[in-house]
């Protein structure tokens, strides 16, 4: 991983129109390659900016899906947004995009406009490998979590705070400053809300599955949760749905397994990386500035 696709003649970059035409012509094959390989990289093509990237995204005809989550992001062009704008010095932990929302994207597509001078890799992990290892080491706890389901909570401020990788305010997240409308939109996404005295909100989600099996992925159980990312943090929690605590040693070992199975992907300028969001966790390594990676999410 990933499957790397490059121009036939490396020293002769094809123009963006030729690339888009090739993608449109072979879109069914390309989608099967994403499912088969979990990650596909276009490298060495003349992809310069958000406009070029958007043309690539739209070549496939996949429906757009609006991002809902804690990461501060800025809309750039049509279907293109910035990736998490939190401080580059922070590590963004491995996750399936929008894993806790009822409707999550099948594909996460990333474009490197400015590669970092140091660090800033986007590591990703074959999710089924985490399940396999956790079942081997903690079979009883894994099956207990699977049977009971999981419950998460997350606290969000009112306005965006770009000093934090989880600093997206609830007004931006739900596209409204009206609390009644925000609750209505949150409920539609499967969230309950508790308003806080400081103007922030606590969102509660669950019960949620521990693992999921998706069509076309060999019946593998994907580690489709965010236990490690939310357990025992200052602004979030992860428990079994009946309130049972998840053992600390299980969470710690899961974190180690995810790191052990990770693939450290290093960006080059113009890279376009397609991730099967149903099969891969991904994150972001700390980075020196500048680093600019753009994102689109698709159904």
List the helices and strands and how they pair.
Blueprint: E1 3-5, H1 16-25, H2 27-37, E2 39-42, H3 50-58, E3 75-77, E4 80-82, E5 92-95, E6 107-114, E7 122-126, H4 127-137, H5 139-148, E8 150-156, H6 170-174, H7 179-188, E9 191-195, E10 201-208, E11 212-213, E12 221-222, H8 227-230, E13 236-240, H9 248-260, E14 263-265, E15 272-276, E16 280-284, E17 292-298
Parallel strand pairs: 1-2
Antiparallel strand pairs: 2-15, 3-4, 4-17, 5-16, 6-15, 6-17, 7-14, 7-16, 8-10, 8-13, 9-10, 11-12
GO molecular function: oxidoreductase activity
Domain TauD/TfdA-like: 15-295
Keywords: Oxidoreductase
Task: Outline the structure in words.
Helix 4 (127-137) packs across helix 5 and helix 4 (127-137) crosses helix 9 (248-260). With 299 residues, the protein is of the alpha+beta class. A hairpin with a 5-residue loop joins strand 9 and strand 10 (201-208). The chain has a 7-stranded mixed β-sheet, with helices on one face. 28% of the residues lie in helices and 26% in strands.
What's the total count of β strands?
17
The general outline is globular
* Number of helical elements: 9
- Note poorly predicted spans: none
User: Major beta sheet, specifics?
Assistant: 7 strands, mixed
Strand content: 25-35%
Global mean pLDDT: 95
Biggest sheet strand order reads 1-2-15-6-17-4-3
End-to-end distance? 22 Å
Order of helices and strands: EHHEHEEEEEHHEHHEEEEHEHEEEE
Helix content: 25-40%
Oligomeric nature of the chains: single chain
Structural class: alpha+beta
C-alpha Rg (nearest Å): 19 Å
Pfam family, one: TauD
Organism: Acer negundo
InterPro entries: AlphaKG_dependent_hydroxylases, TauD-like_sf, TauD/TfdA-like
GO molecular function, one term: oxidoreductase activity
